[in-house]
Amino acid sequence: MTGTQRTAIVTGAARGIGAAIALRLARDGFAVGIVDLHADQCAQTVAAIEEIGGRAVAAGADVSRPDQAADAVEHINDQLGGALVLINNAGVTRDNLLFKMTDDDWDSVMEVHLRGSFLMARAAQRCMVDAGWGRIVNISSTSALGSRGQVNYSAAKAGLQGFTKSLSVELGKFGITANAVAPGFVVTDMTRASAERIGISFEEQVEKAVARLAVGRPGRPEDVANAVSYFVSDEAEFVSGQVLYVAGGPRG
Ligand code: NAD
């Protein structure tokens, strides 16, 4: 199996949506490189993959740092075989109304989402180009369409959509597709933290979010992972430069 098994890299995969994507890709037959800020944070996701008979390695890296992003890709390529799939999922929020938003709130969100995705894609593309096959999926958000208190985050998530489309144009001739998944409200630590910040209970936040959704339930990390699984499949080779809203209702 090792000889033919493809490797996927998932950033921000210690928990939440990234962990669900990593587990799903392992179930789909990929060996998975788990990237998060510190290698020890990745242990739980690695163990979950090993429990189902999969292969995974952890790589500690701040994806917004060029040296760390490149080292993480190299480590995973060495340990699992050259990665042909990259999922840019690592993310942070630094929400605030415009007049209260600090320079650092702006910069840190741009750095993780945009610079991080760029650095990881630049480091990962070489193996894909050499193989003549590759898949890049960037995790955007419904916030790209406009969101109060999130001028930084919505700009970064809209930026990721343009980044995705340009990647698809540049890399298509090498058999590489690039797509984005834009989730709506998904229950994770990120949305828990935002409820805390706004000063409402998480239950109240979930209730308010669900009231706006056609499907009548909040998103789960697995909902996003299912969409990613499609984009990285062989069957999706004619689908590139797209943004799929996984948001429990019409968006985009
Ligand atoms: P989360 O906060 O639970 O997980 C994010 C992970 O990214 C964490 O493990 C964190 O350590 C890691 N990370 C942060 N900065 C990093 C860096 N510089 N380098 C490496 N790793 C880093 O968040 P989540 O809800 O699972 O979100 C995952 C992605 O989905 C993010 O890009 C987020 O913006 C996006 N998203 C989430 C929702 C939602 O409702 N939860 C909706 C739309 C989009």
Which key terms come to mind for this protein?
2 domains; seven-stranded parallel β-sheet; 252 residues; alpha/beta; binds nicotinamide-adenine-dinucleotide
Order of helices and strands: EHEHEHEHEHEHHHE
Task: Write down the overall mean pLDDT.
Answer: 97
Query: Could you tell me how far the N terminus lies from the C terminus, measured between alpha carbons in angstroms?
Result: 40 Å
- Whole-number count of domains: 2
**Which topology of the largest domain does CATH recognise?**
Rossmann fold
Ions, cofactors, ligands: which are bound? Answer: nicotinamide-adenine-dinucleotide
Which spans of ≥5 residues are poorly predicted at pLDDT below 50? none
Q: Structural class from helices and strands? A: alpha/beta
Descriptive account of the structure:
- The protein has two domains: 7-184 and 221-244, Rossmann fold (3-Layer(aba) Sandwich), CATH 3.40.50; 185-218, no CATH class.
- The chain has eight helices and seven strands; from the N terminus they run E-H-E-H-E-H-E-H-E-H-E-H-H-H-E.
- The protein has helices spanning 16-27, 43-51, 66-80, 103-131, 151-171, 189-198, 202-211, 221-231, and strands at 7-11, 31-36, 56-60, 83-88, 134-139, 176-183, 243-246.
- It has a seven-stranded parallel β-sheet, with helices on both faces.
- Strand 5, helix 5 and strand 6 form a beta-alpha-beta unit.
- Helix 3 (66-80) packs parallel to helix 4 (103-131) and helix 4 (103-131) packs parallel to helix 5.
- The longest helix is centred in the middle third of the chain and has 29 residues, at 103-131.
